[in-house]
Amino acid sequence: MSIEIRQLTHIYDAGTSRETIALDRIDLTISKGTVFGLVGGIGSGKSTLASLMAGLGTPAQGSITIDGEPPYPGRNVGILFQQPEDFFFEKTLFEDMASGLLHLGLTEEEVHKRIHSTLDLLGLDHQILDRSPFHLNRGTLRLAAFATVLTMRPGYLILDEPTASLDPKSRKRLVEVIKRISGDIAIIYISHRLQEVVAISEYLAVLEQGKVAFTGTVPGYLDWATGQDAWEYLPVLNQVMYGLQRMGFDVDLNVACLEDALEQIRLSLERT
Amino acid sequence: MIELEDIYFSYPAADPVLEGINVRVDKGEYLGIMGGNGSGKTTLARLMTGLLLPGKGTLRVNGISTSDRSRLLEIHKHTGMVFQNPDAQAIGETVEEDLVFGLENLGLPVPEIDARIEKYLDLLGMRELRHRNIRTLSGGQKQLVNLAAVMVMEPECIILDEPVSMVDARCRKIILQHIARLNHEGTSIVHITHDPEELIWCHRLIVLSRCGITNQGTPHEVFGQLLDEKKMDVPVPYAISRKLGLPLALTTEALLEELCRSRSGN
Ligand SMILES: Nc1ncnc2c1ncn2[C@@H]1O[C@H](COP(=O)(O)OP(=O)(O)OP(=O)(O)O)[C@@H](O)[C@H]1O
Ligand SMILES: Nc1ncnc2c1ncn2[C@@H]1O[C@H](COP(=O)(O)OP(=O)(O)OP(=O)(O)O)[C@@H](O)[C@H]1O
Ligand SMILES: [Mg+2]
Ligand SMILES: [Mg+2]
Predict the structure, then answer these.
(1) How far apart are CA A225 and CA A237, in angstroms?
(2) pLDDT digits over B155-187, tens only?
(3) Cβ B42–A137 below 8 Å, yes or no?
(4) CB of B96 closer than 8 Å to CB of B116
(5) Does residue B156 belong to any structural domain of this protein?
(6) B 66-95 residues with CB below 8 A of A?
(7) Does B266 map to a domain?
(8) Is residue B229 situated within a structural domain?
(9) Is the CB of A115 within 6 Å of ligand 1?
(10) What pTM, to 2 d.p., does this model score?
């Protein structure tokens, strides 16, 4: 049970002066039951890969299969777009959330039930259902977009910058929800918030100019980043630990949280 | 530069968003604004640029009331805003057109326009995007364009609504340093964000909630309060330095220096 990406290449405006090779012979396998982090600089190809995995658009070369089938949005895969505004067209949030579900052939009763239980899961006020999505503040809009995808209950869920514009409280909530549902499905987690990616993912891939620069586990990733002295790939907490290591402190690079880091630094200071 | 006096605001047929808000941004000041989702940060930014008008209270930019609609152009000459939704801002089709548009409106001669565009594309490391269609850019690239479009106008005051929320760490550092430099050279800055690590250069920081402004002061003061109240994130280096009883550090570099010093002090 996995997404298999083989020799995937995608080129925009091929043959013109603006030709961009967004993805260059990508090979990745993403298994069910895991959170798979995807990081990389701006324009490195993350959203392009995300939309191809979600079955939106056809790759120039190579293949993507989900459990052996082609990706089919709304059926075997769901995507939260990087910009939540791209989700909404209708006059009210409810109409937007319901339209996809009705399309799946659910009864009205089931549609209501799913929408309300998903709002509860994310701690969203049911009153927002009657509001225009375009009159919501952006954080709430993003949560509403996330709720919309969740109601579809996809087996593979792609999240493109799910926590951009969320406050710390909503971010925590979203991370809890992801942890809770990730046992049964696969989540592809794209973010520039490295601390978050490292905390939530089991496996991780780095894209650099459309190529896979690294793929492996989180500890492997931290070693890879420090191995080439790439501070910009380290979450701030790990930057501190790496900096200390380089100054000769005896501390671990891979710390899980602030308390963990503090403990290590205290011990190391006592030893000197 | 910007004065808000006892500002009230509600959207039509909705509960009030802002009630009795007082904020001042002095000339050359760098003000940071944090606050939960829906606390009214974007609304405040829209009020500051005259896109919305307060229901009650007065709001002046360079002494001009934003309610004086005949002088709105003057206000827009002094202030520029980077929007939270990167698609809400673009005017031109290509990046170049987008940057040219405002500069032509300023009535600048063509060579000057060209020189400014070159300068800011270079500063933000986006020279190769010059002839690209804005709609086809990646999320982070769009944010860069929006920043460039405002900076190129060299306004007296820049209002930033989560300007780097989709930008990678390396790029973010470059942008933040550049914002700090503009501020150093006299530009007033209002910077809204959920990420305290973006606000290491600001002079003053306010935290907004639905009940009004809950915290304000220097970043050191406010981060200290937030850490005690445990209600919001503070920069990691700040949290570590404070919990270890070291001189307060806002950046990784500063923290590492303090740790090095404290070790040799032992
Ligand atoms: N529709 C398009 N037409 C032409 N070029 C495109 C299009 N969409 C993306 N690109 C280009 O392809 C490259 C990869 O873009 P993509 O959106 O996948 O990057 P990303 O990794 O998601 O970046 P970000 O972190 O900024 O969101 C970029 O150079 C981008 O400008
Ligand atoms: N155009 C609008 N019409 C009606 N209500 C609106 C409109 N824009 C915002 N609101 C409401 O006003 C309140 C404040 O919104 P605002 O966008 O200012 O919050 P914010 O602090 O910027 O939030 P975020 O951190 O999510 O960006 C929210 O409850 C929002 O739903
Ligand atoms: Mg993207
Ligand atoms: Mg906002």
Answers:
(1) 14
(2) 999 999 999 999 999 999 999 999 999 999 999
(3) yes
(4) no
(5) yes
(6) 84-87
(7) no
(8) no
(9) no
(10) 0.94
The answer, yes or no, to whether any atom of ligand 2 lies below 6 A from the CB of B39, is yes
At A61, list the tokens.
């070369």
Provide the H-helix boundaries in A182-271.
194-200, 218-227, 236-246, 258-271
Token pair for A181 = 């549902």
Residues of chain B contacting A244 with CB distance shorter than 8 Å: 256, 259
Mutational test site, ligand 2, from B39, B165, B214, max ligand atoms within 8 Å of CB: B39
* Residues in Cβ contact with A65 at an 8 Å cutoff, skipping those fewer than 6 apart: A3, A4, A71
Q: Quick check: B171 contacting A, CB < 8 Å?
A: yes
* CATH code, domain carrying B35: 3.40.50.300
Q: How many domains does chain B have?
A: 1
Expressed in angstroms and rounded, the spacing between residue B140 Cα and the centre of ligand 3 is 7
pLDDT score recorded for residue B266: 55
- pLDDT digit string (tens) for A215-231? 999 999 999 999 999 99
Distance CA B161, CA B86 (A): 10
- Look at residue B238 and tell me if it is in a domain: no
The whole domain housing B191 covers 2-218
3-class secondary-structure state, position B241: helix
